[in-house]
Design brief:
3 domains, alpha+beta, Herpes Virus-1, Apoptosis, Tumor Necrosis Factor Receptor Associated Protein 2, Chain A
């Protein structure tokens, strides 16, 4: 300890994590921030990310950032889940804020985490997370339905994945004529047919067809999703038609982006819905032995 009871610069550097809003003077805090700022400037981007990660859940740290008396930092969620004991050293946490780290983070600008996918934005640290949640370059989830597929990536990556791993039907063109067959039409719960992908106008579209119960009514449903962003999807329209014996049922809509899960689109009923009784009629009668539906459709671009 320096004469007069004041801490030396060396001691400030070594003990900065213990500063709190109650026992830290403005001078000490400023010196601590200066030291940390120099440390951050000398660190690589990888090092900066590590320093601003919660060591418990590895998510980015955002105010309030907490620390134990020994200087171990953690986020609000992990502090709540730790029942007031540091997960690293098991000492009692209290409510100590790591103000120096919060201030340094406030002064930083970092690249978007989707930089390798094409986003070149540099953002203030506290705006970075919100941007990344909406960044148009963030990877898409695999649009395949009927299995728990964890694959994510850009559109070319997903196209290759769908073709090689899911063996989906790939078609080129903006019109289609599909036949769907079900040997036991009485069973409709969670029946999902093979996904079909169309290459049209240089873009890709996914055609879904499945059976489920809408309330107490067994139904079949067909709908289209666009492999891209919602603002691009709105540039297109599509129509679906099913019929037989002089009757037909038609649907016209806008394809939904694959940013919306297939389940979300289905639950919104945003597509062609065919009650089972009508589907059996189109198929050739209510004999209940086999269902055969022919669904035709077209995709076009709005000018």
């Amino acid at each position: 300890m320096a004469p007069g009871g004041g801490a030396s610069r060396k001691e400030i550097i070594e003990t900065w994590p213990n500063f709190t809003s109650c026992d830290t003077t403005n001078t000490q805090l400023e010196k601590s921030i200066t030291f940390l700022g120099e440390k951050f400037r000398k660190s690589s981007i990888h090092g900066v990310h590590e320093l601003l990660e919660c060591p418990i859940c590895t998510r980015s740290l955002y105010p309030p950032v907490y620390q134990c008396p020994n200087g171990h930092t953690l986020c609000t969620n992990c502090k709540t889940g730790a029942h007031n004991f540091c997960p690293t050293c098991q000492v009692e946490l209290g409510n100590i804020r790591c103000l120096a780290l919060e201030k340094v983070a406030e002064s930083l600008e970092l690249p978007c985490r989707h930089q390798n996918l094409g986003c070149h934005k540099i953002l203030p640290y506290y705006r970075k997370l919100k941007h990344e949640q909406r960044c148009k370059f963030r990877p898409y989830h695999c649009p395949y339905a009927g299995s728990e597929c964890s694959i994510k990536g850009d559109i070319p990556t997903l196209m290759l994945h769908l073709k090689e791993d899911h063996k989906v039907d790939m078609h080129t063109g903006c019109t289609f004529n599909h036949r769907y067959v079900k040997s036991n039409p009485e069973e409709v719960d969670n029946a999902i047919w093979m996904l079909t992908v169309f290459d049209c106008y240089g873009k890709q579209f996914c055609l879904h067809f499945e059976a489920f119960s809408l309330g107490m009514t067994p139904v079949y449903m067909a709908f289209l999703r666009f492999m891209g962003e919602d603002n691009e999807a709105k540039m297109f329209k599509y129509s679906l038609e099913v019929g037989g014996f002089g009757r037909k049922l038609t649907w016209q809509g806008i394809p939904r982006s694959i940013r919306d899960s297939h389940r979300k689109v289905r639950d919104c009923q945003d597509g062609l819905i065919i009650p089972r009784s009508l589907a059996l009629f189109f198929s050739g009668g209510n004999n209940g032995q086999e269902l055969t539906l022919k669904v035709t459709g077209r995709i076009w671009k709005e000018h």
